[in-house]
Amino acid sequence: MTASGDVSFGADGQLTRLLDVREALRSEQQAATSPGVARALETADYYLFIALSYLGYVDHLFPEQDRAFKPLTAEGAS
Predict the structure, then answer these.
(1) Dihedral through CA 44, CA 40, CA 42, CA 32, nearest 10?
(2) Does the global pTM surpass 0.70?
C-alpha cells in the first residue's frame, strides 16, 4: 500500500503493527542512554501518534493524562 492508497485496505493490521512499534519505542525511550536520545524518541512518538490517528486510533498522546485529568461527570460538577 502506498501513502496515497486506500487506508481501509489492511488498516487493522497496520494499526496493530504500529501499536507494537509504539510500545517498543517507549521501551527504548525508557532505556535511553542520554537525554538527547530520549528526547528524539519522544519526538518520534509524536509522529507515530499522528500516523495512528490517521488509522482511527483514539487515545491520549500521553497515557499519564488518564490519571491526571478525569472528565467531570454530572455528580462531580458541583
Answers:
(1) 120
(2) no
